[in-house]
Structure prediction request, 205 residues.
Amino acid sequence: MTRTEIERRWTVGGRKLAILGAAASLAACVQVDTPDKPIEINLNINIKQEIVYKLDGDAKKLIEQNGDIF
Amino acid sequence: MMTKLWKQWKASGLAMAAIAVTAAVAVAVPSAMAQRDPAYEKARAAGQIGEQPDGYLGIVGSATKEVRDLVTDINIKRKAAYTSNAPQGSTVEQFAFATGCNLIAKTRPGEKYKAPDGRWLTRDSGPPVRDTRCP
Prediction:
């Protein structure tokens, strides 16, 4: 094996490594993290009883003034 | 010349009449809007639609496209009303909920309403099953 042949093989090996490295980094880019917790939809309305009481008068007025939609 | 002038008068008179009619309609509409649409009243009475605790109308079972469109239309108007009238310090959702308490209380016997557990119930002569936070 001549010196140049050895050098050439090294370069080929280097190229292969570079391609492998690029492929590996691409694979890392595509990776998607899945959330560990399921997505929750909260249907509970966050309202305290005292707020409902406070809004009661306005609610009654709204119904009276918009008889067509209530 | 005289006829031309007359024509001009006539045209402006027509325009004035048109404006007057438009104004009259604009004035008449709010009072007419205070009443429920007959189709809405009918769907309520038939139990095809009902009141939900969140302050919006819901469809009971399967409904025709007309009924679904009616519900969508009214709910959009309700949302607009809640949004523009929600008092300071309360959210639209909270104001809608407080109104929903009243709307369920106001249902007439035979009409449908949604209980806090999600079931559609028919209003009878007794008080409706409402959220514990309702006054």
Remarks:
- The mean pLDDT of chain B is 86.
- The interface with chain A takes residues 33-37, 54, 74, 77-78, 81-82, 85, 87, 90, 93-95, 97-99, 101-103, 106, 132-135 of chain B (CB under 8 Å).
- The first strand of chain B starts at residue 49 and ends at 51.
